Amino acid sequence: MTERVVIVGGGVAGVSTAAALRSGGFDGDLTLVDAGDFPYDRPPLSKDFLAGTKDIKQIALQPPQWYDDQRVRLINRTAVTALRPRDAAVELPDGRLLPADRVVLATGGGAARPPIPGIDSDRVHVLRTADDADRLRPALAPGARVLVVGAGLIGAEVASTAVRLGCQVDLVDPVAVPLAAVLGPELAAWLHDLHARHRVTTLRASVESFTELRTGIEVRLTSVAEPRLYDAVVLGVGMVPCTELARLAGLEVDRGIVVDERHVTSNPAVLAVGDPARVRRDGALLPRTEHWEAARHDGARAAATLLGTAPPEPTAPWFWTDRHARHVEAVGHLDTAEHTVVRGAFDGPSFAVFGLRDGLVVAAASVDDPSAVRAARRMIDRRIPADADRLADPSVKPRDLLRG
Q1: Do the domains 4-110+239-307 and 325-403 sit in the same CATH topology, yes or no?
Q2: Quick check: helix, strand or coil at residue 387?
Q3: Do 121 and 139 contact (CB within 8 A), yes or no?
C-alpha cells in the first residue's frame, strides 16, 4: 500500500502530480521537494517575468495557502542528493532521509549549452529558471545589442521581449523556417517573417565562436563574413533532461528517464514525469515531450498509477506561444497532413490552418484564434469527419464544426 509519496521537483509536472493525487482521493503523506524558492510557472519567464511586468509571486503555480489546504509538505530551497528505493527513502543534502513508499521524479531539465568556444563568457545567457531571467533582465537595456541563438519557441519569445524593451536584436538559426514540422511551412514562414516587421534581424547561420572583448562579446557566425559585436547573447537551443538522480539510483536512462506508459521507471518504486520522462511503447522509445500541457498530463497519469485508477484518455498534443503581441496555438503536427485548409487571411486580425488526412482533421494551428484550435482538438480526439469548405468559412462558428 502506498502511504508516503515524495515528489522531486516543483515544476508543472510535480505540482500537477500532487494536485491529481489529492483530487483523486490520496490521503497519505505527500511531500514536494524543490530546489527553488517556490514552485512557479515557466512560460512567463521569457515574456512578462523577463520584461519585469510580473514578479515571482504572480507566476506561482499555486498560492502558498494551497499547499497547506492540500496537506502537501513543501520543502523548498533543497535539492535531493540521492534516491534510496531499497531503503524506501529520499536523501537530502544535510543527510536527512525522507521516508517514501513511492517517489515521483519531476526533475525537469537544464538549458542546453553547446560546446562553442567562448560560451562560458558572462555575457552569454540561458533562460530556464527565474534566476536566469533575473540575471538576463539588466542586460536587456534600451539600445543594447542582443543576439538570440535559436529561433524556436524560447528564442522567438525572448527576441520579442527584448525588442519590446528597446534592444537591437539579431536572431540566428541554421534552419530556414523554424517550427515548420508543427506549424506547417506556410504558417511557420509567416511567423518567422513577423520578426522583421518588428525590427528583429533574422540570420540563417550557426555560431562558430564567442570572444570576450572590453566593448562586448564578438560572435563569429557561419555564412557571415565579419564577426559581430553584441552586449549580450541569449541561448535558446533546447534543454538537457535532468537524469543524474535516476542514473545514480541505477534506473534505466536513455536520453531521458525511461518509463512505461504508466510512467513507472525500471524500478517499480520510482516514477518519472515531465521533461525528463521518455516513454517506451510497444518496445520502442518515443521522443520526449517538453511542452507545458504534456507535463500536466504526465502528472495526472502518474497519479492514476499511484492510485490504481484508470489513466485519463489521451488527447492530441497541444501547445501555445506568444510573440510580438500575437498569440499562437497548435494541436497535432501539421507535417502529418495530406493537405491544409486556411480559415481567414494570414494578414488578418486572426486566422487558422487545419491539416486534413483521410477526411479527418489531424492538426491545426492558429494566430489569435484559440477557439479554432479548441474545436480542432475535439475533432481530432473524437475523429469527427471534416468538411473542408466549412473549415475554411470564418462565418461557421468553431463549435458548429464539431457537428461534422
Answers
A1: no
A2: coil
A3: no
Give the full edge-to-edge strand order of the sheet including 284-285. 257-259, 277-281, 284-285
pLDDT above 80 for 383: yes
**Local structure of 219: helix, strand or coil:** strand
Beta strands in 42-101 (DSSP E): 72-75, 82-84, 89-91, 97-99
Find all residues with CB under 8 Å of 294, minimum gap 6, and list them.
274, 317
Instruction: Decide if 330 contacts 377 (C-beta within 8 A).
Output: no
Q: Does pLDDT of 6 surpass 70?
A: yes
Q: Which residue has the cell 504572480?
A: 58
Residue 196 has pLDDT above 70, yes or no: yes
Q: What is the pTM of this model?
A: 0.94
Instruction: Decide if domain 113-235 falls under CATH 3.50.50.60.
Output: yes
What is the sign of the dihedral through the CA atoms of 174, 324, 16 and 14?
positive
Torsion 7-12-15-16 (CA) sign? negative
Q: By the 8 A CB rule, do 11 and 295 touch?
A: yes
SS3 12: helix
Query: What amino acid is encoded at 148 in this protein?
Result: V
% of the chain residues with pLDDT over 90: 93
Domain coordinates of the chain in residue numbers?
Answer: 4-110+239-307, 113-235, 325-403
The CATH T-level fold of domain 4-110+239-307 is FAD/NAD(P)-binding domain (3.50.50)
What CATH class has 325-403? alpha beta
